[in-house]
Amino acid sequence: MEDENAEDMEVEILSSMWPEDIDAAGKKFNVEKPGVDQDLLEDLTFSEEPSIVDFKRLLELTNYSEKGSSQLSYLVKNWELKQEKAVILLREELENLRKQQHGFELKKLEILEEHMFEDYEYGGDKRPISILDHEVYEIFQDVPKRRSDVIVQDESLEIEDEYDINTVKYWKQRALHLENLLNTSVQREQILLGKLEESIEKLEKQSSPVEELSQILKRADNFLHFVLQNAPVVIGHQDKDLRYRFIYNHFPSLGEEDIIGKTDVEILKGGGVKESQDFKREVLEKGIPGKREITFETELFGAKTFLIYVEPVFSKAGETIGVNYMGMEITDQVKQREKMAKLREEIAVQKARETELNKTIHITEETMRAKQMLATMSHEIRSPLSGIISVAEILSTTMLDKDQKQLLSVMLSSGDLVLQLINDILDFSKVESGVMKLEATKFRPREVIKHVLQTAAASLKKMLILEGHVQDDVPVEVIGDVLRIRQILTNLISNAVKFTHEGKIKINLYVIADPCPEDQKKHEKNVPRSHETTVWIQCDVQDTGIGIPENALSSLFKNYMQAGADTARKYGGTGLGLAICKQLVELMGGRLTVSSKVNYGSTFTFVLPHKVPQACESLDETDEYQDVGDDDASMDEDDVNCGFFQFNTRTLGSLFSSNGSGPTHEVTRNEVEFDKPDGFSVPVETSSKFNLENSNTNHTGLDKERPTHDPCVQKNRPLKTNTSTRVDSGTTRPRILLVEDHVVNVMVAKRMMKQLNQDMDVVNNGVEALRAVHRCDYSLILMDVCMPVMDGLQATRLIRSYEKNGNWDEARLAGVDLQDQILKEPRKRVPIIAMTANAMSESAEECFANGMDSFITKPVTLQNLKQCLQQYLPSYETL
Amino acid sequence: MTSFGAVRLRTDMNRLLSLLFHQGVLDEQFLQLQQLQDQTSPNFVSEVVTIYFHESEKQLRNLRNLLLDREMWDYVKLGIHLNQLMGSSSSIGAKRVRNICAAFRNAVEQNNRSACMRALEVLEHEYCYLKNKLHELFQIEQQRVLGDAVRYPGVMHQQ
């Protein structure tokens, strides 16, 4: 049987691509009976090229491998069964025919006997035919009635019998008839025999097992192709040397001859090939099927990932003789999977970051709240504290004995310290919360340096030299927030003083190249017609103090941090100062850095961009300056351009010598030391001169501080004439007018003025104010806004109109009858300060719009009254 | 009166003041007022406050009459009186009275008569409270001044 099958297979070589596990053909593939689904398959065209098979190997396989042989034997058994069935059928048919033949032969014999009997009867005695007939009939009856047609004939015979039974003619006829019947019967028999032979022949022809098998195979093959036609799979079989014996690949890139009989390594080159080969070998050796994902990186088909399944194939003896191999391309899936993994990872990271952020936000919120709290508290503390300090200040002006004075001075200094601290905290929170606004005002850097050094020297309790060097290229005037710059400088200087026990503290000021020219360019682009050019001014504050260890430098600018815990204990302070300085400098667009060496000193450096006012503008300005400070200019003309200042404690030594608290012996020693190299002593007048000058610059500075309130500032010009005239007249005291309707407020204000050593006229409403202004000249008017009869705004407007036009026409229109005066000169502009109960900005706007110069929020305090006087009565300080 | 008594009086005064500050009845302006008091005018604060009370009682009467006048709703006059009361209150540092005045003025501006009535009642109550407390304060102060007049240096040393 097997040989036969093998032959069949060879016959089928051209079309078969039957895989090794042929036993699955019946079950796993579920092939349907031909004809039922033939139509379906007829529409499909199969390309049979992709599969390449080594048939010899297939034969071998079927011969030697367990599966192959069982598969074959199954097919053969199937065929055998069919053949047997056919044989049985044929045999039955044969039997039938034989029986029929037998019947006919019997009949023929009977008929012959009948004829012989007829002949006999015909020649001799006559017997009653009926008996014979009966006998004949009886014998006839014994003949097996197989066929109905025969029986029918018999009946007709009987019928005929009844008609004329005894005639010779009848019998002759009957014999003839039977003869005919016999003939036809024989004929039929012959036909049947022929048919039988034919059938047998056909049977033999039809039942070729090869055809059957090949049809089954073909169908399965078609189905396989149908299923696999677009699948990205490669199916193959490799022998135990891992040479390909069969491969199915729908998208082949190599010809048959390139694959069959070769190993993976021989066919492909690149990454993954070796791995797959090794894996196959492993499966081959272990005899256990396995799956693996392998990424190939070959020249032939690029980078692709395959999931390969390899199972061993055993021979009947149980030896592995090869592997079945199936690979599916899963490059996209792997990519997706990797993408998913990456996404998942990212999500995890994101989540972690989110929680981190939430934590940070939470902490920040807490911090903000704490800071807010601190700011609020500081603010709350500041008000009563300023009360305490003011009271102490007032107390110090009263008659006290020496001990009391000393106690009071301690109280004042402590109070100032706390106030400074609270101001620091408030400043700090202001900068942090972005509330801090910077002003842009013109100022003279040299003066600022001088003033700062002077102030520092004034409060110096150690023997130190304070020096200021300003390079010549630093402009005389620049624009910036002078108050903040002063704050920074003061902070840095006081810091330097705090940590320096002997030596020098130096300020160097010089112009440097633009550290970020692009920034400037951008800026210039934004403001194309800017009148100013920007200079970067660097300021070094250098001391010869204890220095800062390197590891502390990083935390130096952090809030509330000092270089070390023991430093904090030894030197005190909040550690906020530098943080504020840094913030302020950065707020102004600059940088603050520090370099230091322990025991040799530190240098704090900050670089700030400053705009330089255009020449025309500064001309205008200097005009004013010269007017204001004629005396100032004559006194130290070179001071404007002088680049060197030096102060030391000795200058103010007389002030402190009475104190007796300082280390006196050291003072003297230093004095001697300093005397020699210095060679120049700053006379005490210098400081007072500075004061004078500063009060002047101060007030001009304030003029410029409100550049937005243009109308006032423009009209403010006459103020300088005012100053100069007063300087001319010399001793006249400024006349102050208070316009206030309420008794209590009048009382308080009067009392305050008394403490400030100023006399003051009081009127109760706007009309009275007009009359008072009409009567005599005032240097300053404090004007309540809400008053009966005529409010402060209207009164101010009328006064301004009078100043402008020199007549009281408008006042008359308003119902106030005043006589016009003959003017001696153009009227000067009186500063009018509003006093408002509600400090809302709109009312401030209203005040400015009506020609007021400034406003004080009620309740009026000694402090803001004093400030106001300082600002608007230039002679106030000197009085 | 012993020096101990003087200390106690001073403590009482401070305590009362701090209570008033704490309650927000007074603000630092009152301290300003106290600063303004010196030898040349030893009773400055009490003088000012007395005038304040005198004036304010007039204002309050006016306010009440204006509000009770059913036919007329003169918010201009109301506003003037309130402004005056507000100004003087802030001048002596009567913070709470001042704040209620502000609220009152808002009510006037909104033409809300019932809110005005409520505000007036609160204002009167606040005013009485302030008056009582300040009287108390001045009483203690008077006692203290009487005591201090003799023992001032000694007390200072003990402190």
From TrEMBL, chain A:
The modification 4-aspartylphosphate is found at D784. Residues 690-700, 719-729 have a biased composition (Polar residues). Residues 690-729 are annotated as: Disordered. It catalyses: ATP + protein L-histidine = ADP + protein N-phospho-L-histidine. Gene3D superfamilies: 1.10.287.130, 3.40.50.2300, Histidine kinase-like ATPase, C-terminal domain, PAS domain. The keyword Transcription regulation does not apply. This is histidine kinase. It comes from Deinandra increscens subsp. villosa. The lineage of its organism: Eukaryota, Viridiplantae, Streptophyta, Embryophyta, Tracheophyta.
UniProtKB/TrEMBL annotation, chain B:
The keyword ATP-binding does not apply. Residues 41-137 form the HPt domain. SUPFAM superfamilies: Histidine-containing phosphotransfer domain, HPT domain. Keywords: Cytokinin signaling pathway, Cytoplasm, Nucleus, Two-component regulatory system. Its main location: cytoplasm. One of its GO terms (cellular component) is nucleus. InterPro entries: AHP1-5/YPD1, HPT_dom_sf, Sig_transdc_His_kin_Hpt_dom. One of its GO terms (molecular function) is histidine phosphotransfer kinase activity. It is found in: Cytoplasm, Cytosol; Nucleus. The keyword Nucleus applies. GO terms for biological process: cytokinin-activated signaling pathway; phosphorelay signal transduction system. Functions as a two-component phosphorelay mediators between cytokinin sensor histidine kinases and response regulators (B-type ARRs). Plays an important role in propagating cytokinin signal transduction. Histidine-containing phosphotransfer domain (HPt) contains an active histidine that mediates the phosphotransfer. This is Histidine-containing phosphotransfer protein.
